[in-house]
Specification:
Blueprint lengths: L1 H7 L2 H24 L4 H36 L4 H35 L2
Helix pairs in contact: 2-3, 2-4, 3-4
Length: about 120
C-alpha cells in the first residue's frame, strides 16, 4: 500500500521524502544511543525535516499546476478526475508533513533525554 502511494504521488518527489525520513529515523536512533551532546544531531534533524516539508509542498504545488494545465487544455473535467488529481497532488505534502512531524518528535525526545 505504501509503495502504491509513493508511485502514485510521483517518484521524483516521494522517493527523496521516504529516503530522508529513513535518515531522520536513523539520526534519532543514533542520538538516543549516543546519549551525550546531541546538538549537532538535533540541528541536522531539524534541517532535514524542514527540507522534507518544503520538498513535499513543492511537489504539491507542481502537481496542482499540472492538474490546472490539464483542466485548462480540456476545458471541462468531471468531479472524479478533479478529485483524483487533487488527491495525487496532496500525497507529497502529506508525506512531507509526516516526515517533518517524525523529525520534530525525535528532537523533542532527544531534548528530554539530555542530562
Amino acid at each position: 500500500m505504501i509503495l502504491e502511494k509513493i508511485y502514485e504521488g510521483g517518484p521524483f518527489f516521494m522517493v527523496p521524502i521516504v529516503l530522508l525520513l529513513i535518515v531522520i529515523l536513523l539520526l534519532v536512533v543514533k542520538g538516543v544511543l549516543k546519549k551525550s551532546d546531541n546538538t549537532k544531531t538535533k540541528n541536522l534533524i531539524a534541517s532535514i525535516s524542514l527540507f522534507v516539508l518544503v520538498w513535499g509542498i513543492l511537489g504539491q504545488s507542481i502537481g496542482l499546476i499540472s492538474a490546472f494545465e490539464f483542466i485548462q487544455k480540456t476545458g471541462s473535467v468531471t468531479a472524479e478526475i478533479l478529485a483524483g488529481g487533487l488527491k495525487v497532488s496532496f500525497l507529497p505534502s502529506v508525506f512531507g508533513m509526516f516526515a517533518f512531524l517524525i523529525g520534530r518528535t525525535g528532537i523533542v525526545v532527544l531534548t528530554l533525554l539530555e542530562k
